[in-house]
Specification:
By secondary structure, the chain is mostly beta strands. 9% of the residues lie in helices and 40% in strands. The chain has one helix and twelve strands; from the N terminus they run H-E-E-E-E-E-E-E-E-E-E-E-E. The strands form two sheets. Strands 2, 3, 4, 6, 7, 8, 10 and 11 form an eight-stranded antiparallel beta sheet that branches. The chain has a four-stranded antiparallel beta sheet with strand order 1-12-5-9, with no helix packed on it. The N and C termini lie far apart (53 Å).
């Protein structure tokens, strides 16, 4: 009569013991493919028909018109990543700043990131640039002197070209965020797209 409960207990213990991990030495380290933007397009509400020069500098703002005017205006950035391989999966947009990286900001610096209705081109203006479709994520860019700062903005299905529009989140308070973007700055800082992790 006691045979069945004792046998069940011994078998259960044996099964649980065999399911316990034996260490991580047999696990391969994860590695991701990382892309930096292929296009950073600055668009200005106060000059809606002028295409601005592309650069490796990310700068957005919600500010007063030059000369101290009372009207607020936006400077948004369109960021695009091209040449994502066809079989890629798990595309993740991140803000990455290594230890000692640099982000400049003032005022209300919370940033909204939107999916857009089309790909960007170097000739885009405020009037012709991709329009915001839906909120993809929100981020506060940050760099620290002694540690890496990595902020995952969001992830989604990979496409060969992936484009987002960045804008200061506030509609009532001035704010600005700017930093140098790309692998050549501080050992690689700014916006990155990772996949196949």
């Amino acid at each position: 009569m006691h045979f069945l409960p004792i046998t069940s207990a011994i078998l259960s213990a044996a099964i649980l013991t065999s399911a316990i991990p034996t260490g991580t030495s047999d696990l391969a380290p994860r590695s991701c493919v990382t892309h930096y933007p292929t296009l950073i397009d600055h668009i200005y509400e106060v000059s809606p028909d002028i295409a601005n020069q592309q650069s490796n500098f990310f700068e957005i703002a919600y500010d007063t018109v030059s000369g101290g005017g009372p009207r607020l205006w936006r400077r948004d950035v369109i960021v695009q990543f091209d040449d994502i391989p066809a079989n890629s999966h798990g595309c993740q947009l991140e803000a990455y700043f290594p230890a000692g990286g640099n982000v400049n900001q003032y005022g209300d610096s919370l940033v909204n990131v939107f999916t857009v209705d089309k790909r960007a081109t170097p000739d885009d203006t405020w009037n012709t640039a991709p329009r915001a479709v839906s909120l993809f994520g929100t981020v506060r860019f940050e760099a620290k002197r002694d540690e890496v700062v990595r902020r995952v903005i969001n992830s989604g299905v990979c496409n060969q070209s992936m484009t987002w529009r960045f804008t200061i989140a506030s509609d009532t308070k001035v704010g600005e965020v700017y930093f140098q973007e790309g692998p050549e700055f501080f050992g690689g800082q700014g916006l990155i797209l990772t996949h196949n992790c």
